[in-house]
Amino acid sequence: MKRRELWMVIVASAISSLVTMGGLMAVWSGQEVLAKDNSTPQKEVRAQQFVLVDYDGKTRAGLFLMANGEPRLSLYDRDYKIRASLVAMDDGAGLILSDKHGMDRVIMRVSTNGEASLTLSDENRPRAVLGQTDLESKQTGTVEKRPASSLVLFDKEGKAIWKAP
Questions:
Q1: How far apart are CA 22 and CA 14, in angstroms?
Q2: Which of 163, 88, 156 has the alpha carbon at shortest distance from 132?
Q3: Is residue 10 over pLDDT 60?
Q4: CATH number at residue 6
Q5: Each residue of 36-61: pLDDT tens digit?
Q6: β-strands 143-146, 133-136 pairing
Q7: Which of 1, 96, 163, 165 has the highest Cβ tally under 10 A?
Q8: Is 0.85 surpassed by the pTM of this model?
Q9: Nearest to residue 111, comparing CAs of 94, 95, 135, 125?
Q10: What range defines the domain where residue 83 resides?
Q11: Is residue 86 part of a domain?
């Protein structure tokens, strides 16, 4: 399987997991999932944003354009913190998973030139990167471009402590 195909499978799996989790959460909560309106649906709906609200009127999901014109699909928790986002950017696309404080913890990204990475972070900074990343030497200021097949681990201060290949 080629690298691009592998990343497409990973992204599709992540999106499928998010959709499945949402459906299971609705089923487990005992709330009705499907609307009972039998009217003929519109063939097209145009808007600059779509907002999904819960029964209390709180935003739980949104599909909108950011200020720079890039589209974003965001899922919110009950405290109005973004927990998952799918973003299409001029330089690529990404899936971002955040913790209950809104801190990005998992970032899956593919650039327009095909460079892909998966970044795992703690509350302060990235701790592991699988795939293409740039490492800057604090001593020389040079930038080392790591290949797509690389894995880099970082310490609490953000210094690379292990890398392969």
A1: 12
A2: 163
A3: no
A4: 3.90.930.1
A5: 666 787 788 888 899 999 999 999 99
A6: antiparallel
A7: 96
A8: no
A9: 94
A10: 1-24+50-114
A11: yes
- Rounded CA-CA distance 109/117 in Å is 5
Structure tokens at 113: 């030139």
DSSP annotation string for 107-163: EEEEETTS-EEEEEE-SSSEEEEEE-EEEE-TTT--EEEE-TT-EEEE-TTS-EEEE
Give long-range contacts, CB 8 A cutoff, 24+ apart: 154-162. Answer: 154/125, 154/126, 154/127, 154/128, 154/129, 156/122, 156/124, 158/125, 158/126, 160/135
Q: Degrees (nearest 5) of the Cα angle 59, 63, 67?
A: 105
Q: Which residue has the tokens 């009127």?
A: 57
Tokens of 133: 């990343």
Q: What percent of the chain has pLDDT over 90?
A: 47
Band (pLDDT 50/70/90 cuts) for residue 16 is low
Determine, yes or no, domain membership for 130.
no
Q: Which residues, in sequence order, are bridge partners of residue 94?
A: 87, 109
Does some domain include residue 124? no
The answer as to whether 57 is a domain residue is: yes
